[in-house]
Specification:
Layout (H helix, E strand, L loop, with lengths): L2 H7 L2 E6 L5 E4 L2 H7 L5 H5 L12 E6 L13
Antiparallel strand pairs: 1-2, 1-3
Amino acid sequence: MPLAYLKREGLRLFVWCNACSRNRSLPVEPLIAALGPDCPVPAAARRLRCTGCGGRDIESRPDWAPESPGVISRHI
């Protein structure tokens, strides 16, 4: 799934650090500007660095939570 899909659907990118478990939801517009609209969601994570520990072991997925009526489990 490319970043352009997230933008079109009004979604953000949920990212987390496997080293320290820090996580957050990022807007996709700056990522599209830097990586291009066709960049796949998993590839975007490989270009990020954790602001908490500086780690590069980052994973990502669409942030479906705003669209969901119930509680969504988060990586902790």
